[in-house]
Amino acid sequence: MNVIQQSRPGGVGTIAGAQVSRIGYGAMQLERLRDDRGAAVRLIRKAVELGVDHVDTAQFYGNGLSNELLREALLPEDGVTIVSKVGADPNPGGPVPLRPAQRPEELRASVEDNLRSLGLDQIPVVNLRRMESGVRLDLPDDQLVDLDDQLAAMVAMRDEGLIGAIGISSIDLATLQRALPAGVVCVQNAYSLVTRDDDEMVDLCEQHGIAWVPYFPLGGAFPGIPKVVDEPAVQHAAAELGVTPAQVGLAWLLAHSPATLLIPGTADIDHLEANLAAGDLTFDPQTLAALDAVPSRSADDMD
Question: Annotated catalytic, 215?
Fold first, then answer.
């Protein structure tokens, strides 16, 4: 199947030296299509047809289902950069569908699981998912692993060619500073218009050419966390531009930093198209200033 890609949604960004669409696709919600694999494959193919060439996944998404669907749907000629993550493993049947897997030997086992389910010889980028910010899991003593030991395992796998580059996720600023010598190419943290604790980290990513990949880009992922779409300034901008508040929230992230890559997820093609269309939005100075003035609520206040 030959696919003629449209222009890249959101323009061109960079991760691990590869040029990619600034709006990619996050595969976590593919699990919602577990009972309709055909619909899932069509959704992935539609994303590629619309110019998406940057996909975020993990073995613990649906206990390998997301990876299996990506393997089925994507073709080598699509040129899609796949980013996965390790640091947690599937926990089917448990109270939470994932469990921490922070030890170096677990990181390696997780990479090997990802390689098998994705059908790849090398994963272009693998994020080390820590537990310092965002969604945290309780860590037993044997999961309290020093960052240097984890990075040594990641570097060894990069040297062996199992992974192409190293990213890091759910961290604080001090951890990113410690990790820089390992050659980090991207950072994934919870971040949105209404929760901007990590602005110093965004600046550091810009300085070092590191992709900044916010998850929960519209907030509201859990009770008590504010939603970007509820902000009056966001709603006003959406009404003025004739778009949805969610599109305004995504477009603000792209405008806020040139280092930003987005990975919004969905199980619906119409929603996919709306997410990608956010890359076409531009704000006049007054609208951007009004959005920038929305107060940030510290993530620490929402624990």
Answer: no
